[in-house]
Specification:
There is one protein chain. With about 250 residues, the chain is α/β, with parallel strands linked by helices. The chain folds into 2 domains: about 35 residues, no CATH class; about 200 residues, 3-Layer(aba) Sandwich (Rossmann fold), CATH 3.40.50. It has 9 helices and 7 strands. The protein is globular and about 75 Å long. The relative contact order is 0.16.
Length: about 250
């Protein structure tokens, strides 16, 4: 059951006196709040991360790595300076599972959407690839381009868990299409990945050595696109224990 705004009575407008002493009509706070919630809904932030803001990110708990505070500082500076000083650049949050990468990325997105009116979008990398694959089914009405268009055009895109899908030529082509399109349009992209921001090793490693070592971001998306990310994003490496096993940061309800 909806309630009527106590300020405007549900009209959506209020009368206020301007600086020149004239009475004018302006949008009520309830209308501003509704528009803000519509922008958040359009950003497709998963319910699990709706609570993730920059103000709720914890850095002063026992055993916290200094990189967490540095990551928060970078996130705050980005949100405060966007878009004037970011010039289309974004952030690459790299680090182990559960250190707060998605929290910071979502926190930036929420602040920009709520306070700046930015048209943002949250995109889970693995889910995106699955949806694109599903679009090839002739019984599915949605096309690949319909899925990709919002990702191409969002003012700020959060691309979460990049590299999570097992790599192949097709997935590399999709990553290249997304990153190159956004790079050319000078649109900011905030990326999170669980893989070290290192190259695939090139010819300096044997196949056996490459298979035995820890996979890198270069392995997962290709060195060419890793190089593109270096042009597009400020790199933030985050270290520490899994928050979900320590301070219970993520909510799984």
């Amino acid at each position: 059951m909806s309630s009527t705004c106590a300020i405007c009575g549900g009209v959506g407008l209020v009368r206020v006196m301007s600086e020149s002493g004239l009475w004018v009509s302006r949008a009520c706070e309830c209308q501003q709040a509704e528009r803000e919630e519509r922008r958040i809904s359009s950003a497709r932030i998963p319910e699990r991360y709706r609570h993730c803001t920059l103000d709720s990110f914890e850095t002063h708990f026992r055993g916290a790595d200094a990189s967490l505070g540095a990551g928060l500082l970078t996130a705050r500076k980005f949100a405060e300076s966007y878009p004037a000083d970011t010039a289309g650049r974004g952030i690459l949050f790299a680090g182990a599972i559960g250190v707060g990468k998605t929290h910071l990325a979502t926190g930036i997105l929420q602040r920009l959407v709520r306070e700046r009116g930015v048209r943002g979008l949250f995109c889970d990398y693995r889910e995106l690839l699955k949806n694109i694959q599903n679009s090839y089914n002739p019984q599915v009405a949605t096309t690949e381009m319909e899925l990709l268009r919002p990702i191409f055009t969002a003012e700020v895109l959060v691309l979460d868990d990049l590299g999570a899908q097992k790599p192949n030529e097709w997935s590399w082509d999709i990553v290249a299409l997304i990153l190159n399109t956004r790079y050319n349009e000078k649109l900011s992209t905030i990326v999170t990945t669980n893989y070290p921001d290192l190259s695939a090793g090139g010819g300096e490693l044997t196949d056996a050595q490459r298979a035995a070592r820890e996979p890198t971001l270069g392995d997962r998306i290709g060195d060419r696109m890793r190089s593109r990310l270096a042009e597009m994003c400020v790199r933030v490496e985050m270290r520490g224990n899994d928050f979900r096993q320590t301070v219970k940061r993520a909510r799984f309800g």
